Amino acid sequence: MPPPNGYSTAMESERLLLVTGGSRGIGAATALRAAAHGYFVCVNSRRSFEAAASVVDGIRDRGGDGIPVQADVGREKDVTRLFNAIDALPGNLVGVVNNAGTLAPAARLENMNSDRWNSILTTNLIGTMYCTREGIRRMSRRFGGIGGAIVNVSSAASRTGSPNEYVDYAASKGAIDSLTIGVAREVAQDGIRVNAVRPGFIRTAIHAEGGDPLRVERLEGALPMGRGGEPDEVAAAILWLLSDDASYVTGSFIDMAGGL
User: Fold this and answer.
1) Strands in the chain per DSSP E
2) 8 A C-beta contact, residue 18 and residue 96
3) Sequence-separated (6 or more) residues with CB below 8 Å from residue 72
4) 65 and 40 in contact (C-beta within 8 Å)?
5) Which of 60, 66, 91, 95 is most buried, judged by most C-beta within 10 A?
6) Catalytic-labelled residue, pool 39, 130, 166, 169
7) Which 8-state DSSP code applies to residue 124?
8) pLDDT tens string 166-186
9) Cα dist from 109 to 27, 154, 208, whole Å
């Protein structure tokens, strides 16, 4: 699949990075920071090609490059199409940031239904598994790849359980933590490192999806650091885990919730 009109292809020497859910929040901050570090970034969005393209335009304005790809990571056919777009680029895939995620309005477990659970688990967990699998198939030295790194965006909710609000979201992120540890040990000798960040109380639009757009402002006073976090602070940690500076780090977590 050729890149969309108006977007150039990577040079042979360039390192390719996929950021899922890259059109906003932590994903967009990661894509912009990664491009500044020399990655050619595939910016994925589930809903909007235009939103992903806007991030790529921002990358290009800063002297970097990338391509936008609209795909729902919870659908296997979409993930196949997403990675086919990456395969069509010169260069080597060296990193996957599994950032795409969703949640639903705050509720207690007894008031949740299976449609809600299926939606959250499909995007947050199954989507991460699809993209992790496809990333391994391309980066693993066993399959002719040159190695690389995978960073999963988990959540502080995986540790707290998020009672009375988002226990289903928390459970999906707890599964991401287990996946991170298990896959890290599976592919450690294949040249792939797998780690995760666990953000909490970050100023992103996901809180609006949960019906509480001012959640960070409402709760930040109770945090040890007394403030919410910014997407770029999480992006900085993700880029460190992708980098050679973290060459001896795998199966590990960086907690980013202001001391919670």
Assistant:
1) 15-19, 39-45, 65-70, 92-98, 148-153, 192-199, 253-256
2) yes
3) 46, 78, 123, 127
4) yes
5) 66
6) 169
7) I
8) 999 999 999 999 999 999 999
9) 29, 20, 20
